[in-house]
Design goal:
Helix content is 35%, strand content 16%. It has a domain of 239 residues. α13 links the parallel β9 and β10. The longest helix is centred in the N-terminal third of the chain and has 36 residues. An eleven-stranded mixed β-sheet has the order 4-3-5-6-2-1-7-8-11-9-10, with helices on both faces. It is an alpha/beta fold and 413 residues long.
Length: 413
């Protein structure tokens, strides 16, 4: 039978075109991670984005509310933070080292504001990596519940500048918001970046972060599937060592900018939680030397039960910017570290006892180090000016691991 109206090649191309259009229409929205991030962040979408079909009155109201909250953050915190970073912090550290943010949870936004020149960020916490399931055929109720859950989970970031552990545990273990991923996407998009890819994976016992790439490509989305373990045959598993679930998001500022990535790991870093496993130490040591950022960390690094992660943090850090909830002042050997102080030291909030630092208090009282102020609020004393932070800089910068020796040399400003 002859073709009527189209030559054979044109008919074949038309069929292919319809197949592609149908496939794109059925493709989960997470296959467009940049648009997914913008949708969740209440930002304008490209004209031909799959997410345009999900824009309704509820989303437009969400966008308006988000813009109002974010404009207040920009004025009160983020612009002063960017200015301070450029004028002070960048000149005191090697600004493009990887960023290590212990107990950061999903708080990517402050890491981006303070360390915009880094290309590799590591955060961890107890919350699950989570998933992103936004389909063009999702019911309005499902989408609206997700948007409401995202907005609700950000309430403490808006007001205090940190997540409250108990609330975060509840907020990020729900059916509509099952982990940190949507919040990471929101922060990256609102930080002015384009999300390129979302990769779920595992930190293996040998310290490698491994992703199941073939599954991601074939399914077009990422889920927090406990059965999707990568190949474990390459290295025998040490006794009692389990794969550590995580998610990695790759992003960039624009087409001409280098690619960045943030890796989030879900793990208990207490000595009991780490057991005899060395995966975290191996991974972080390979990442280092790092610029380390610690805030609102529940004073965990003060306790004997967190001795391993405290030693690791000191060992890999070329610089540390933190409040008093991070590494105890006494642990910075001043033969090895230069210290700059900010704000003023005061008694820790009543939620925490036994963590007052007489030596840090004495350093502030006697002006043992240079003392300046921060032009923004960030920490447990968020409602007052009684906040303290320090920058600790190694006097002798750490050497890079052998695998990084040829990556380019850096000198301290």
């Amino acid at each position: 039978m002859k073709n009527q109206g189209f030559p054979a090649s044109s008919s074949w191309m038309l069929c292919i075109g319809w197949i592609l259009i149908t496939a794109l229409a059925c493709m989960p929205a997470a296959a467009q991670p940049g648009d997914a991030a913008r949708y969740l962040a209440g930002l304008p979408l490209p004209e031909h984005s799959t997410y345009q079909s999900l824009v309704d009155d509820e989303w437009q109201s969400y966008q308006e509310s988000f813009n109002t909250a974010w404009q207040a953050l920009e004025q009160d915190r983020f612009q002063p933070m960017r200015d301070w970073q450029a004028q002070v912090l960048a000149s005191e550290i090697l600004p493009d080292l990887p960023v290590y943010y212990p107990f950061g949870g999903p708080d990517m936004i402050h890491a981006l504001m303070l360390y915009p020149h880094s290309q590799d960020y590591l955060l961890f916490g107890l919350e699950p990596p989570g998933s992103l399931e936004l389909h063009p055929d999702a019911t309005p109720e499902e989408r609206h519940q997700l948007l409401d859950a995202v907005q609700w989970a950000l309430r403490d970031i808006y007001q205090r500048g940190y997540f409250i552990t108990g609330r975060m545990s509840s907020d990020l273990n729900r059916r509509e918001l099952d982990g940190v991923l949507p919040l990471l996407l929101v922060f990256i998009a609102r930080g002015g970046y384009e999300v390129l890819a979302i990769e779920h994976g595992w930190l293996l016992p040998d310290g490698r972060f491994d992703t199941n790439t073939s599954e991601h490509l074939s399914r077009g989305l990422v889920t927090d599937d406990a059965d999707a373990s990568p190949d474990e045959s390459r290295d025998p598993r040490p006794a009692d060592c389990a794969n550590i679930p995580g998610v990695r998001v790759r992003f960039r500022a624009n087409d001409n900018s280098p690619e960045k990535q943030v890796t989030y790991l879900r793990l208990d870093v207490s000595d009991a939680g780490l057991k005899d496993c060395r995966a975290l130490e191996t991974y972080v040591t390979g990442l280092g030397p790092t610029n380390t950022f610690i805030k609102s960390a529940s004073y965990l690094l003060h306790y004997a039960t967190f001795s391993r992660v405290r030693r690791l943090t000191l060992a890999v850090s070329d610089s540390v910017f933190q409040d008093d909830t991070g590494i105890p002042y006494r642990d910075f050997d001043q033969a090895d570290w230069d210290i700059l102080l900010f704000g003023r030291y005061t008694t820790p909030i009543r939620d925490f006892s036994g963590v007052f630092q007489p030596d840090l208090n004495q350093a502030y009282m006697t002006k043992a180090h240079s003392i300046d102020n921060l032009p923004f609020s960030m920490g447990y004393h968020w409602w007052t000016s009684a906040q303290n932070h320090l920058i600790a800089r190694r006097r002798q910068p750490l050497a890079k691991p052998a695998s990084k020796e040829n990556a380019g040399s850096l000198s301290r400003p």
